[in-house]
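Students often ask why we bother predicting the structure of a whole assembly rather than each chain alone. The short answer is interfaces. A chain on its own may look different once its partners are present, and contacts between molecules only exist in the joint model. In this exercise we take two input lines together and write out one structure for the complete complex. Read the inputs first and try to guess which parts will touch.
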Amino acid sequence: MASKLTVGWPALIQCTSLTKKFGAFTAVDEVTFEVANGEVFGLLGPNGAGKTTTMRLLSTLLKPTSGTATVAGYDLLREPQKVRASIGVLPEETGLYDRLTPREHLRYYGKLHGMPEDLLRKRSEELLDTMELEDRANTKVGDFSKGMRQKVALLRAFVHDPPVLLLDEPTAGLDVMSARSIHSFVERFRKEGKAIMISTHNMTEAQKLCDRIAIIDHARIVAGGTVTELQRRTSQKDLESIFVQLVTD
Amino acid sequence: MNFGRITTIAGKELKDALRDRRTILAMIVIPIIVLPVLMFLPAFLASPERNPVRIAVIQSDNTSDDFLASLASDQIHVVRVGREQNMTKLIQNGDYELGMVIPPDFSRILEGPDQRATITVFVDQSSARGTIALSLVQEEITKYSDEIVSERLAKTGLPPEALTPIETDLRSVTVTGTGALFLAILLPLFLGIYAVTGAMYFIMDTTAGEKERKTLEALLTMPVTRTEIVVGKFLIAVLIALVSSVLAIIGMTSGVLVFSGAIGEASAPGLSISVSNLLLIGLATLVLAMTSASLEMMISIFARSFKEAQNFLSPLSIIVAVPAIAMQYMSEQTLRSFAVAPIFNAMLIIRDALLNRASATSVTLEFLSAFVYMIIALAIAIKIFNSEKAMVRY
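Now the answer. The structure tokens for the assembled complex follow.
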């Protein structure tokens, strides 16, 4: 199974036996996987399986209890600042400032990433344009719908053009149109060679977007590989049946 | 620490705060308008200069006309009412602030060498205007009575000294005027309250509030250190507390100017502050803002939600008044032993500067101790920021 989860060459995300315990409770248990550039990797699992904790470990919000990971070649524990400079994060909740506009958000986070002024301005305009947000770029996000907020939060993750993206439930609770535009946005950056990791419990999304999938349940990865590999292994056709079979086994 | 990133964080915090009506309310509107008005308006309204007190008088005959003429003034309106009137009712209804019943043969009683006339006074002492009326009337009666005493004495050939065998000769050793004394009581209290309350809302919003709204989680995934985040937020908290303190001084001063005359003693006579003392007050105000901002950040970061932070911080706005009030009743020696206590130290500098008795050694000690508290509080705040348990909810 491990071979399906590793790529065999220096990957942008390399997790080795990553474990996180909160007291007696193990939230992530010996998780090992790799995500290469130009790849969308899906972490698929039921609620509470450990998806968000894995994402938080990789974004340095939490420190692993044991095991390690490198992101863009930097070690989580030894170089957290460099890890943070190499990732773009879409957290489970958008975490936007209601009194700031989309343009101000991009400017703030871009500056925190040390982007030069002219590059930041160019990049922000380009991103706002891609997400069709330029008309609302000067409106405070407090007035935005959920879908629009999600788009702004996604742009925030991409503003500094990081090699690695960690997207936690990118389309949860969104309408079809918003979800589609987020999918095409992710597709575009996959082509640019980013390593994109998505956590989701949406099977259609996983099947549509992900090159490889790891199924996580009760803190452990129970299976991994491409959808075809998983189909072969479980003799099931659709991802939902594959998932149900693996999780109930 | 990267100053560019600190400036970026501080800049965003300032923009965010200035767009928040609640911060504006706490920082600008309350210190400059609400509190001065609340403080001076009652005195203004109760003032007999603006609004003379009304006194109802029942005369038994016209022998008291002369006395009533001396009683009437710009501040006292004397209204004669019929004997059938019920004084208690007249006052309780609010028609008059005070009532007097003058006995018959008033002037004849006074002319005699050894008789006394009793004036019955009706007043509601639970009302501010009633108390003012009473003291005004009593003052006039004493004056009138004194005149009669000297007339009686003159008739017996005794000198006025016969009645006051002991005299007090008061020599004030106050260095500054009563205005400075008045400010020495009020300024530490007000600056303390504004340092604590001015930025309180902002601090709760930018720490516990950010945690609750999950904006902090996004910020923590940026390549900034936790120290930079704390320092950036702290700088704006200090700025807001400082602005609110300065506006409070402006508000209080303009309050005194607008309503002065109404409250004579508040209009700071005999106040002259040297530039160095003024600078000292400015510095102490800054220190007060820094101490309270660091303390509030430390407590507020610990809170899980805005509401919890509110519960933790609200008592501070009352607690801060304790040293300011206690200061008035403590001996100088006791005061000195409290000189290094937090908040107390800065308040003491303000008081001493106003009274022109600040000494270099005590000021240095007070400033140093304030900085030590600030550094400790900020260090704890940074430590909490670094703790994943306090910052990230699982």
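Check your guess against this: The mean pLDDT of chain B is 87.
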